[in-house]
Amino acid sequence: MAVNRPLRDYGLKSERVLWRGKGPSSFEDEVEGLEQRLGLTTLEKAVAWAQTKSMWPDTFGLACCAIEMMAIVSARYDIARFGMEAFRASPRQADLLIVSGRVAHKMAAPLRQIYDQMLEPKWVIAMGACASSGGMFNNYTTLQGVDKIVAVDVYVPGCPPRPEALMEGIIRLHERILAGIPPAYEVRGVAS
Amino acid sequence: MAILERPAIYEGTRIPSPIPTVLQVPDELREGGDILQVNFGPNHPSTHGVLRLIVDLNGEEVVGLEAVIGYLHTGFEKNMEQKTWWKAITYPERIDYVAFQNNEYVFVAAIEKLLGLDIPPKAVWMRTLLNELNRLHSHLVWLGTSGLELGAISMFWYAFREREQILDLFELVTGYRMHTRYFQAGGLAEDVPRGFYPECRKFVEWMPKAIDDYEALLSRNEIWLERTKGIGLLSAEDAIALGQSGPVLRASGVDWDLRKAEPYLAYDQVDFDVPVYPNGDVYDRYKVHVDEMRQSVRIVAQCLDVLEGMEGEPWIVDDRKIVLPPREELHTSMESLIHHFKIVTEGYRVPEGEVYVAIEAPRGEMGCYVVSDGGPRPWRVKFRGTSFVALEATATCMSNALVADLIAIVGSLDTVMGEVDR
Amino acid sequence: MPGYVSEKEAHGEQTVVVEPGQLVEAALHLRDEEGFSFLSDISATDYLGWGQKGVAGYIGTTTGRDLNRPAAQGFQILPELKPKRFSMSYHLLALRPGAPRLRLQVWVEDGEPVPSVVEVWPTADWHEREAYDLMGIRIEGHPNLARILMDDDWEGHPLRKDYPIGGEPVRFSSEE
């Protein structure tokens, strides 16, 4: 969207009429700044902006972290303000896989299947200590970190992480996308 | 135990045979009709976690059912054998991750039974209060998610609003919202902080109105009644044979609650009722949960009355061989320093023996079987997960069920997959 | 009681040991005659290496140390030896006031089967499958003895004492 002439030229003279000698108001400065920003929008920046504003997560709650993930959907830590309250049950309709909980080796195959079924671009948040690294369960049956089978973008530590901590992880993911960093599977290959 | 006078829910037994936990398609149906085998896979929005159900459908009717579990098996029991008794207390909390303090308590109670400790009254009452707050938390999560699955999405928001208040109380006392690790062998980890009792009072005054809200939303709601009345019948004899306990057993007409039958903590000193309903259907399980929430609020209020008069009392037992000394003493007393070092690095020793402790967790009888060899580490710890046993009843409840009822029934059994797979 | 071997009372709990061959008769006797209609739990325990680590034993009590017990602080105190490698404990409960509990125990060696009590208490189904899956105790007469918590093609029985804890060594960033 390119704006040819400043809005000042279209009107917005009322303040000057009433108050001779007054300089541009803060509103006009903001408008000018906005025009300059929007005037430089490229397609990629617009696409990145759209991707972050309604990134739909997949229902992949496994264990305790899933309860805190449900808490960010609830009213106090409302995730709907980021446009993410629509948790899709089908991975084909989801953009974000929040792996919340410990992953047993038996569950690793379904996890990989769900990840494969998601359409690109897709992002993965490893929520909690168990998804990031196996957590306190360093044993025969727990996958020591979900990044062994999927490519993870953001790791959120905690056992379980507070809803605010998960929200910080989500916002950092948004900032990565807005900065232009590609999703993890492009950076690291299909699995790291 | 009394079984209520009730209409005969069904004659005889509905437990399938030869395998009690698998509903098998009768042969004539398999040859004649078209049976569709559907996989309710581990990743499903309505199965309360990673449960896999292999369901055979004849049209809309469920004629075959098998539950496959193990997708969350974390090896708790083996991990706990590697840690000292003190460090192992963090593990049981994650087993039933919704009623975490009940799990902590059952393991700590087993250690205390082996040690033969006398817990100070302040710790007893505080543990009772926290266990009941946890019961409220667990029932709220159940109510919210059950409502969500059956379409009553508003239930989720209301239940989680109160849940946030309970988690604020936990954070005030213990410093963390979930998985609080507040119980030690011998009492509590730290004294009750200032300001907790007034906050808990405010919550206790608010909660009954919130429960009234939930009942107003669901109890006489026509859609809820249609979807839950007469669904998932389980008779008292079948429930006992299948080892059910807790709300499922009480909704089938059996008046059995470990808090009354085998009182532990301060439950013999508080006044509360145990709700029992005669028809073993999903609606009765819902009613049992809601009534239990009201009783829990009563218990919390009574615990507060007692605790407010207990300022300055000890919160942990005096035995320095098991309990860390207060930090101020470490500067002046050599014995305190040595004991602190030995308890933290090597761990305290628990006498040889085996015990089984069972409590009334929100889902039913949660048990912990501990074998000690006299050393600083447990030899064997086994948790009787309530949900593990509750899932065995899915096949029995599922006779004459439709696909839509499947979700209601599995939800009403109140399973948490962490307990099932451990 | 059929198959009775011994009984023990400790920590307020009663344990009755029976012969594995007569477990089902003992179970029926307990359920029908004594009223233990509720099976809480079946726990399998592996006692391989029991008493060999030489733990010093409990040092003190809440009321003081027992100074008259010989060798109270050395490594001479060993826990009492167990008859066989595995024990299967059946925790029973009678649903009447007073909540009487009983632990029914059988002892078996590696490879010796234990008869199934599914006919007596249907809830034993999954508990016995778990004992087979995680401990490797073969249950005879079970209608569906298959792995329940581990993968179907998993080799080994994880909760045995000779099965390693597994996992990975933890890497520290200063080592790189």
Keywords:
heterotrimer, A: about 190 residues, alpha/beta, 4-stranded parallel sheet, 8 helices, about 10% strand, C: about 180 residues, 5-stranded mixed sheet, two-stranded parallel ribbon, 7 strands, about 15% helix, globular
What would a concise description of this structure say?
With 192 residues, chain A is an alpha/beta fold. Chain A has eight helices and four strands; from the N terminus they run H-H-H-E-H-E-H-E-H-E-H-H. Chain B has 422 residues and is α+β, with helices and mostly antiparallel strands.
Descriptive report:
The complex is a heterotrimer of chains A (192), B (422) and C (176). Chain A has helices spanning 14-18, 26-39, 43-53, 64-73, 105-117, 128-133, 163-179, 184-188, and strands at 57-58, 96-100, 123-127, 154-156. Chain A is α/β, with parallel strands linked by helices and 192 residues long. Mean pLDDT of chain A is 80; it is low at 13-18. With 422 residues, chain B is an alpha+beta fold. Helix content of chain B is 45%, strand content 13%. Chain B is built from 17 helices and eleven strands. In chain B, strand 8 (353-361) and strand 9 form a beta hairpin. Chain B is globular, with a radius of gyration of 23 Å. Chain C has helices at residues 23-34, 124-135; strands spanning 4-10, 13-18, 38-46, 86-93, 101-108, 114-115, 139-140. In chain C, strands 1-2-5-4-3 form a five-stranded mixed β-sheet. A two-stranded parallel sheet of chain C has the order 6-7. In chain C, strand 6 (114-115), helix 2 (124-135) and strand 7 form a beta-alpha-beta unit. Residues 54-67 and 71-76 of chain C have low confidence and may be disordered. Classes of the chains: A alpha/beta (192), B alpha+beta (422), C alpha/beta (176). At the B-C interface, helix 2, helix 4, strand 8, strand 9 and strand 10 of B face strand 3, strand 4 and helix 2 of C.
